[in-house]
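Appendix B. One record, verbatim.
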Amino acid sequence: MVPGQNESAGKRKSAKTKKGNKYLRSALTEAAHSVRGSKNYLGALYRRTASRKGKKRAGIVVAHAMLRISYYLLTRKEMYVDLGEDYFDKQRQQSIVRHSLRRLESLGYTVTLEEPKAS
């Protein structure tokens, strides 16, 4: 389930995934396609990748993420803690605010931003 890498002169090109256990690969891919509507990190990862690269590539990306998560959980003997559906939005919060601000100003609105009060 390791994504293929084809890099030359600093440019990354697409390549086929490496060979592995075909039963594990099919099980992980099927499980990855089943999380597409779920409200957790893996579902958000699937939808985010599928919008850019297609459903099949998104399935492989999520299957690879599932495999990495299970590896770390087994080696570190920890419980799984979901990052949440809004994980990617939290990471890009400032850029989302800037983009939304620019879009509203380009439509002719005057916008003032205020920080939310902590309660």
